[in-house]
Amino acid sequence: MTDFEKTRSLFYLPEGIVYLDGNSLGPLPLAAKERVARLMTDEWGELLIKGWNKAGWMMMPRKVGDRVGRLIGAPEGTVVMGDTLSIKVYQALASALELRPERKVILSDSGNFPSDLYMADGLIRSLDRSHELKIVEPEEVEAAIDETVGVLMLTEVDYRTGRLHDMKSLTKKAHDKGAIAVWDLAHSAGALPVDLTGADADFAVGCTYKYLNGGPGAPAFIYVAPRLADKVRPALSGWLGHETPFAFDLGYRPGGGIDRMRVGTPPILGLVALDAALDAWEGVDMADLRQQSIKLCDLFVAEVEKRCPMLTLGSPRNGEKRGSQISFLHREGYAIMQALIARGVIGDFRAPDAIRFGFTPLYIGERDVLKAVSILADIMTNRLWDAAEYKQRALVT
């Protein structure tokens, strides 16, 4: 059994705070402070540019990629780190479209993160080849997969509601209809068991600053199935995706396998922080994590519905049908969340009316859940949210 008391001790959690926003930004792993400090002094400071060879910086995108891969069911050598999630979405989608040149439809759903849809729209406009982005309701995705679809592009866990897609069945349906499947694991990696190999996914992308606790702006990852890795053409043909980057050829030749999905100079500070953060996953059984996550979410839902009847559940009630987050709906959701934050319970707000809470068993337990509900109940019962200072919108919600 996974020792979640032990994993909790690996994080810095401010005194008096109940942190239920790890689905947006994970807390600071204690090991990351020391590792980044050591990089700054012993590697960057002492080695200077020699660090690329002597400290192994150049291979970090693959090394860290393999560590992430173990959490998402990806074989060694199929995941590489670098850039942002939006860039990785663009890379995966562009490569996927080239694999089905005769197909013009990209199918996604209204629960997808808007940035993924923006990247698809921008790519379509740049290609100018009559592609179409078709967006349906999440419940309508399976029925909408037909012979016109070239690429199925979905986020496995809905960022607002936590609704969980069945990756394996939808990927099979896509393949049966001749389409390529691209999965965004932003709210999956580190939140629940993922098996890209078992699902036969073609591409997957994800960020690492949420459940993987890599820090603000931590580098994203991309996965390409081994059967496709030497076939796909990288749309962003950066110098580190070249077969021999330091030959400085004027013509581009893609590197072998997943290395071709590298673009520019790897963000070493971010990769080192993430590498340290991933130490917390050593010895964690993902089945234990999933069981504890569902238990905490179920407790939260039951207690909130009992004590705050004015809030409406916005997430699937069945724990097996959602990720590791819960949303409740209220027209004054923004003010409610600001009142919670002022009382030391940190979640976030997603327009138009969702207050959202993430449950990460690595550092959240039942006591945190009950404390959060008690404070929420006081705020709702006594309308403490109804104050001018809680209704002034900040830049980040």
UniProtKB/TrEMBL annotation:
GO terms for molecular function: kynureninase activity. Its EC number is 3.7.1.3. It catalyses: 3-hydroxy-L-kynurenine + H2O = 3-hydroxyanthranilate + L-alanine + H(+); L-kynurenine + H2O = anthranilate + L-alanine + H(+). It comes from the Bacteria. Keywords: Hydrolase, Pyridine nucleotide biosynthesis, Pyridoxal phosphate. Pathway: Amino-acid degradation; L-kynurenine degradation; L-alanine and anthranilate from L-kynurenine: step 1/1; Cofactor biosynthesis; NAD(+) biosynthesis; quinolinate from L-kynurenine: step 2/3. Its cofactor is pyridoxal 5'-phosphate. Belongs to the kynureninase family. Homodimer. This is Kynureninase.
